Structure formats: C-alpha cells, structure tokens
C-alpha cells in the first residue's frame, strides 16, 4: 500500500497499472501451479470442482509465454513489480513466521490492523486484544 502511494505521487498511472498487472499475472500463474502440484501430490483430497489437467497446463503455457515476453520487453517494470512483491517478505516474517513476539510488537501490529480497518472501512474494528476476553 505504501509503495502504491509513493508510485502514485512520483510516477504516472500507466506505470502503476503495468506494475500491478505483472504482479497479478505472476500470482495467477503461481496459483495455477499450486493447483497442479496439489492434484499430483494429493489426488485423493475432496475437491468441489474438478477440472481436467489439460486446462491449467494450457493456461500455464500461455502464462509462461506472456510472462517471459513481459520480462523481455519491459524488464525495469517487471523488476520493480518483483521488488514490490518482495516487500511483503519482511512483513510475513514479522507478522506470521515470528511466533514468540514481545507484547509491544503484538500491540503495535494489532493497533495498525485496527487503524487500517477503520481507514478503509473493511471490517468493524474490534480493538482490544484477544487475551483480554
């Protein structure tokens, strides 16, 4: 979100759309790859919708072509898109992977979440820790 605000202030909207579209297509492809891996490694799990594997494999072939073409034609835009994705890695490690956080870090994360919810009107904020209940 912060990177988007900076790009909107500094750059133009066309560049931001290119960054976001590259990121979206990259995430779509990784999701389809996950579908194929799960179908191969765990074929017996329940699936409410089962698709012939030819469809995701065909999608991945076109996806790879478009992604490689994008990387070839606009490497700077793709590189910035990858950097934007990688900014989420420290957030993942601080928020999810690090289990034994000090209470002050938990309070900070909780207050930032509550503030973000109020700002964006996404969810009715429940400020206050779970430990208090």
TrEMBL record:
Ranges annotated as spanning the membrane: 16-39, 51-73, 79-98
GO terms assigned for molecular function: L-amino acid transmembrane transporter activity; neutral L-amino acid transmembrane transporter activity
InterPro entries cross-referenced by the UniProt entry: AminoAcid_Transporter
GO biological process: D-alanine transmembrane transport; D-serine transmembrane transport
Top-level taxonomic group: Eukaryota
Organism in which the protein naturally occurs: Sinosuthora webbiana
This protein's name: AAA1 protein
Keywords: Membrane, Transmembrane, Transmembrane helix
